[in-house]
Amino acid sequence: MKGRGCWETGSVRSFCNSGCLNKFKKDDSGDEEPASQSDKGELHGTLKTLSSKLEDLSTCNDLIAKHGAALQRSLSELENLKLPAESGEKIKAVNERATLFRITSNAMINACRDFLDLAETHSRKWQRALQYEREQRIRLEETIEQLAKQHNSLERACRGAPGLSSGGAGITNTAKGSVQSTKGEASDEDEETEYFDAMEDAPAFITVTADPKHHRRSGSNLSGASEGHPEDWNLEDSVFDSSNQTSYNESTCKDLLPKKRRRTRIPDKPNYSLNLWSIMKNCIGKELSKIPMPVNFNEPLSMLQRLTEDLEYHELLDKAVKCESSTEQMCFVAAFSVSSYSTTVHRTAKPFNPLLGETYELDRLDEFGFRSLCEQVSHHPPAAAHHVYSKRGWTLWQEITIASKFRGKYLSIMPLGAIHLEFHSSGNHYVWRKVTSTVHNIIVGKLWIDQSGEIEIVNHKSKDKCQLKFTPYSYFSRDVPRKVTGVVTDADGKAHYVMSGTWDEKMECSKIVQSSHGSTSSEGKQKTVYQTLSPKVLWKKYPLPENAENMYFFSDLALTLNEPEERVAPTDSRLRPDQRLMESGRWDEANVEKQRLEEKQRAVRRRREAEAVEALEEGKDYEGYIPLWFERKVDPMTGELICVYKGGYWEAKDKQDWSICPDIF
């Protein structure tokens, strides 16, 4: 009897722990795959197995009842025997326990039968509900995908439709609050109406594009707060119309001087696989410049060369020189400041961190009228000084310090420092700063880059300003992706031009002819309505070269930046061996060389620190590292201590006297 009870208890435990019950539980787990005939067959098979187990339990119950009754009869017979009183009491207690055991086993079997009935009933309901939710999810995903495709196609159609900006009667409304034209008003509000979303942090505004042929009228419902003449726009066309871009390889001076042939391709990027998370998981919260990275995450250019890429659309500044109006010149400067981000849209790889004292020159004086020099003037924090002189009438200089943080899912890159641009003839001095760049999907998904924030460009001579808003990307926003908008104002705050476009494609400029105060937005901000003439394209991105996707998405200019050149300084980035090996596709050798260079730089830093300690002990002053071609001065415009070019580099190049250059490679 004892052995039989153990087997019966084991059967119940086996049933409760069986894989069949676990399978049944999984039917309610919300599995992502849609239900199929095989799933339904598996469900029926599970229920059949459960029924079989229940039959086994019923058989056990019958056996328990049968043997329990026999046990009770035997106990009753023992009670009738003439036994001592103590034995009779014990037999009676055993008889009661046997009765309780039989009642409990019957209750267990009934509970199991009820469980099976409920499982069979509710599993079908759960299956139908789950199937419905899966179908709804699939339909929603298909709808969102279709809407996204339609959204993109409409954007492309809108951008490529010249009729929308040249004289159509249609109305394009992309703003959160639209300006509706009414019958009976003048035709400049009936035709060619275009709207822009109001900037959140800057003063909100809406633009209405009017036809200059119908602009002259009386009794306008727009105030004369800011009035201009359409004829002025036509007079300025000689400068603005020359903004139609040609490619980097098609310079206006090509007919005057024989142009040096530059390379048009580099070796294709090798297909190396590497687990990013295995390297980055220990780097969360650290400065990017302090993280030891293999070249697998780099592109074969240094940060100095990336900084030089800002000059890809230098002809915008050449055209700005010809502008007689400072506000008109501001438009070209604003377009130039935006154009520097166009190369970043596909460039998700990290440039090489320059070694301390590393330089990079780009001498295009004969071809394009400018020569550029960069030097790494600090390593922690990493800072690069840049100076560009153009014989066509402008000089640009900057010192950029890169602050970056890895946040697990994204990487924020914050360039710190001001960019200065001065035009020789007019003396106009412009200053602005860069926006924050964010690299998304660092760990999972496809890497993509976004630019967000504001750029305020100030002309310190005329006090003109341009406030540019880089709208961060949002999947649910109605805005054009990578949108940039802004307004050019003079010293009195009077608006003259509206800037609009995207940082990866083009920038347009619209001359304001009238302005008025519109309605108050839902955020409580006063909207200004700018009536403008048709926009003119100031800048348009050059198409990428063929096979760019296999060449790190380099532009035509970027392909030439690391091209070997003679007579450059021994500290030039072109001579950096790990970068050259990577460009050649020899990544394993490049990683070894990169470690050697970094250890060499650390040894120099340790020696410099030891010299500083020794000087301190002797009571002497220690100057630390001194840049070769730049010197630190207080910037009179910003009050900041920055590195400015002190001269001597190009003279040393002419003489080929590089004796003061350190051995960093």
From TrEMBL:
Residues 130-157 form a coiled coil. Pfam families: Oxysterol_BP (PF01237). InterPro entries: OSBP_sf (IPR037239), Oxysterol-bd (IPR000648), Oxysterol-bd_CS (IPR018494). Keywords: Coiled coil, Lipid transport, Lipid-binding, Transport. The keyword Phosphoprotein does not apply. Residues 171-184 have a biased composition (Polar residues). Residues 25-44, 163-193, 211-246 are annotated as: Disordered. SUPFAM superfamilies: Oxysterol-binding protein-like (SSF144000). It comes from the Eukaryota. Belongs to the OSBP family. This is Oxysterol-binding protein.
